[in-house]
UniProtKB/TrEMBL annotation:
Domain HTH merR-type, first and last residues per copy: 1-70
This protein's record includes keyword ATP-binding: no
PROSITE patterns from the UniProt entry: HTH_MERR_2
Organism of provenance: Lysinibacillus agricola
Record keywords: DNA-binding
Record field: transmembrane: none
Pfam name, any one: GyrI-like
Gene3D superfamilies assigned: 1.10.1660.10, Regulatory factor, effector binding domain
Protein name as annotated: MerR family transcriptional regulator
Keyword hit for DNA-binding: yes
C-alpha cells in the first residue's frame, strides 16, 4: 500500500490530480479512519495508468468515468467514436495552420483561363458510399468531411476521387442545395449498408474547371450549350468530381474540378 505522496511520485501523477480523481470517483483510495490517511494499492496503479492513457487520447474526465464502466465491446465503439472526432479536429487544425502560413509566406499564384473543352464518355457502373443532405456551400465541405470519416471507419477500398451530385436547388434560396456526396469504392462482397449505392453505366459529357468555385457556373453553361448544339438533352443532375480541392491545397485558384452530366439523344 502507498501513501498519496509516494503513489504520486511512483506514477507521475500530481497529488492535486489524485485528489481530483478521488472527487470524481475515478480513483478511490482506501481511507484509514484512525489517522485519516489515504492509501493506494497495486490495483490502483493499473487504474491510474488507464486514466493517463485515456487523457492522452483526449477523453474528458466524464468520458473516462463512463469508459471505466464499459465492457471491451463498448470500449471499442467508444474508441472508434473518439478516432472520428480527432480526425475531424485534425482536418480543422490543418486548414487553420495552412491559412496562417499564407500570412507568413504569401504565394505568387499563376492566373489561368478556363477553355471549357467538352468531352464525351461512358461512365462505367460503380458502387459508392453516399450521404445526402440539403446544405449551403460551407456545410457541403463539412458533409464531405463526414463522408471521408465514414469511409475510414468502414475501412473501404477507394476507387476514384469523391464527387458531389447536385439534385436540385432549394426553392427560394439559391445558396442551398439538395446534394449527395459520394465516394466510389471497390465492393468485394454484398453490402448491407443502405448508404452504399449502385450507379449504372451512362453516357455523359464533361469539362474541367480550374480555379475557385465562384465562376464554376461557366462550366455548367459550356455543357448545356454543347448538348443543345449537338442534338442531346441533359439527362440527370450535374456532378462535380474534385481532383484538387481543400483537402490537397489551401489555394482556391489551384482547385481542379470535373463537371459532368448524363446525356441522351434528342
Amino acid at each position: 500500500m502507498y501513501k498519496i505522496g509516494e503513489f504520486s511520485r511512483r506514477n507521475k501523477v500530481s497529488q492535486r490530480m489524485l485528489r481530483y480523481y478521488d472527487e470524481k470517483g475515478l480513483l478511490k483510495p482506501k481511507k484509514d479512519e484512525t489517522n485519516g490517511y489515504r492509501y493506494y494499492t497495486n490495483e490502483d496503479i493499473a487504474i491510474a495508468n488507464k486514466i493517463k492513457l485515456l487523457r492522452k487520447y483526449h477523453f474528458s474526465i466524464d468520458e473516462i468515468k463512463n469508459v471505466m464502466e464499459m465492457d471491451a465491446t463498448s470500449i471499442k465503439g467508444k474508441y472508434e467514436q473518439k478516432i472520428a472526432e480527432l480526425y475531424e479536429k485534425t482536418i480543422e487544425y490543418y486548414r487553420v495552420i495552412e491559412e496562417m502560413k499564407t500570412y507568413i509566406e504569401p504565394k505568387n499564384m499563376i492566373k489561368r483561363v478556363n477553355a471549357y473543352d467538352v468531352f464525351c464518355g461512358v461512365r462505367k457502373p460503380f458502387h459508392a458510399l453516399c450521404l445526402r443532405k440539403v446544405v449551403d456551400e460551407n456545410a457541403l465541405e463539412l458533409l464531405i468531411d463526414q463522408l471521408l470519416i465514414s469511409v475510414n471507419q468502414l475501412n473501404l477500398i477507394l476507387k476514384s476521387k469523391h464527387l458531389a451530385i447536385f439534385h436540385s436547388m432549394e426553392e427560394g434560396d439559391n445558396s442551398r442545395y439538395d446534394v449527395e456526396v459520394c465516394q466510389p469504392i471497390v465492393l468485394e462482397e454484398e453490402a448491407n449498408d443502405t448508404r452504399i449505392k449502385y450507379f449504372e453505366e451512362t453516357n455523359y459529357i464533361y469539362t474541367i474547371h480550374i480555379g475557385n468555385y465562384d465562376s464554376i457556373s461557366y462550366a455548367y453553361s459550356a455543357l448545356y450549350d454543347w448538348a443543345h448544339s449537338n442534338g442531346y438533352r441533359l439527362d440527370g443532375p450535374f456532378i462535380e468530381k474534385y481532383y484538387t480541392d481543400e483537402f490537397i491545397t489551401l489555394y482556391r485558384d489551384e482547385y481542379v474540378t470535373e463537371v459532368s452530366i448524363a446525356i441522351k439523344k434528342r
